Amino acid sequence: MSVLKEISSNVRNIKQTECLVLFRRTNQIKEELRQGVKKPYREVIDVFWGDPHRAGLKPLSFVRQVLAACLYPQLMDGDKLMVDVKQRAQHLLRTCAGESVGSYSATAGIPQIVQSVSEYIVRRDGGVPCHPENIYISPGSQWALTNIFKVLVNSEASPRTGVLIPVPCHSTTIISLMTLGAVAVPYYLREEQSWALETEELQRALDSAKGVCNPVALYVINPGNPAGYVQSRKCIQEVIRFAAEKKLFLLADEVYQDCVHGKESEFVSYKRALGEIGAPLSDTVELASFHTVSKGLMGECGLRTGYVELVNLDPTVMKHIDNLFSTNSCPILGQFALDVMVNPPQPGAPSYPLYLKETQHIRALLAQNVRRVEEVINSFPGFSCQPLEGGAFAFPRVFLPPKAIERAKEAGLEPDTFYCMRLLEEAGVLFSPGSEYGQKEGTYHIRFCIMTPTDTMEEILKRLSVFHKQFMKEFS
After folding, report:
1. Is the dihedral of CA 94, 97, 100, 101 positive or negative?
2. Does the reported pTM lie above 0.85?
3. What does pLDDT average to in each consecutive run of 10 residues of the chain (476 residues)?
4. Contact call for residues 293 and 52 (beta carbons, < 8 A)
5. Phi first, then psi: what are they for 54, rounded to 5°?
6. Which of 50, 166, 289, 404 is the most buried (most CB within 10 A)?
7. Could you please report the per-residue DSSP string of 165-181?
8. Which helix (H) or strand (E) holds 198?
9. Is 410 exposed, middle or buried (CB count within 10 Å of its CB: 0-12, 13-18, 19+)?
10. What pLDDT sits at residue 1?
């Protein structure tokens, strides 16, 4: 008897992503290039992922030096490492059993690092209190988000549990909900208004769920992924009041909080906005907020470490969350990187000048890439890119000709997947299609990472320009 018959229907109902077609073809093209097959390009530029190091950005020296010293303490015997690097490594090793990165960690995270995260949140939020016992360090922010979903979703309930999800939204979040048997209730961001989140649309989404599911939570992403928006303080407070009125649990995905590049934009955490509203909402609205070392200036995706802070949860519920998070502890090295992220070198420290130089370089190239992408993309006929205020991606809309849409249907692909496949084949650039993240019916988008070296971004825009002109001419 096939085991497949016993697999949960929630898992079996997950559709295969069309991006797998792009991944397979990318690997084939790379192999063809290695074998000397002639193409209009010498290498594939992969900006599909939100992975700065994959895209060519260099790791921050202080982070890697501290991790290297912790992995191999003998490095601290010489004079190659700055004094503050050695001091940080020694401090971090003392937090481990046996002073070794090979030891197990407390399931909620190393207490001293949890304390550092708590102090960072207080500084970030202008003094709004943060309690270490409400913080859980996890193997990535997505892992933490899925665990909170497990608490919120009652798989035996009828009607099923619903969670309001923004469109566009990263597909892994939707998949996490589907595997739990929950319903993702879409609310659409207003693209024409720089992807604004409007409470009227939240109400429409809530109304659409009647008779279908029981919405219990509202998931927000700020700064936006993939759409690159940054919510204003006013918008955030309106969302909080809406959640309070509708008795919705708030889930705030804030992993790109260090990547804000809009001149008029400012990151305000949901925790801070809630505190500024004051009682009774600040004492009653239930909130989970997420951050990670994978995103932002550090970009240490492979270390798989993040945290969640929980606000205003019932103590009984917190006991169950504690049990749930105890099923998997976070790797020690990732927690060390998290400690560096929330407590970087300060002015006067020996490592500060290099740290400042490296982070300023990343911010400068990101700002330059944003300006170039907006300028170049909006100059193409058949393209429209809203202002890129934050995050690591561009998500422009492409107005595909009817003939291209028809050709895509004949190929069994979504129109924007078809566009991305042709771009990969003819220009050697790997983007992701908007259909992967959700979009209003009849609209098409592409997403690509903008956290790349400037010369790489210029090459991407050059190849895209040549390809797009040929594509539009072919299908006009």
Report:
1. negative
2. yes
3. 61 71 96 96 94 91 98 94 98 96 91 98 97 95 94 92 96 91 97 97 98 97 96 98 98 97 93 97 98 92 95 94 86 96 98 98 95 97 96 97 97 97 98 96 97 96 98 96
4. no
5. -60, -35
6. 166
7. EEES--HHHHHHHHHTT
8. none
9. exposed
10. 46
Q: Which residues, including other chains, have CB under 8 Å from residue 186's CB and lie 6 or more apart?
A: 164, 165, 166, 167, 205, 438
> What single DSSP character describes residue 290?
E
What is the DSSP-derived secondary structure letter of residue 40?
A: S
Omega before residue 280 within 30° of 0, cis: yes
* Cα–Cα nearest to 383, from 468, 473, 471: 468
Query: What's the token pair of residue 224?
Result: 């936006």
User: Pairing relation of β-strands 287-292 and 249-253?
Assistant: parallel
- Burial label for 360, CB within 10 Å (0-12, 13-18, 19+), is exposed
Pairing mode, if any, of strands 135-138 and 432-433? Answer: unpaired
Q: Which helix (H) or strand (E) holds 436?
A: none
| Residue spans of beta strands (DSSP E) within 12-106 | 45-46
Coil, strand or helix at 341: helix
User: Exposed, middle or buried, 305 (CB in 10 Å: 0-12/13-18/19+)?
Assistant: buried
Q: What is the dihedral angle through the alpha carbons of 189, 191, 197, 199, rounded to the nearest 10 degrees? A: -80
Q: Is 347 helix (H, G, I), strand (E, B) or coil?
A: coil
Distance CA 223, CA 217 (A): 19
* 461 close to 60: Cβ distance less than 8 angstroms: no
Find all residues with CB under 8 Å of 86, minimum gap 6, and list them. Answer: 69, 76
CA distance 260 to 269: 13
Distance CA 420, CA 437 (A): 14
Cα separations (Å) of 364 from 257, 357, 416? 16, 10, 31
DSSP string, 201-248: HHHHHHHHTTTTEEEEEEEEESS-TTT-----HHHHHHHHHHHHHHT-
Going from the C-alpha of 313 to that of each of 123, 135, 151, 321, the distances in angstroms are 22, 12, 12, 10
Residue 11: its pLDDT value, please? 67
Q: How many CB atoms lie within 10 A of CB 285?
A: 20
Q: Quote the pLDDT of residue 155.
A: 85
Spell out where 222-361 has E strands. 249-253, 287-292, 306-311
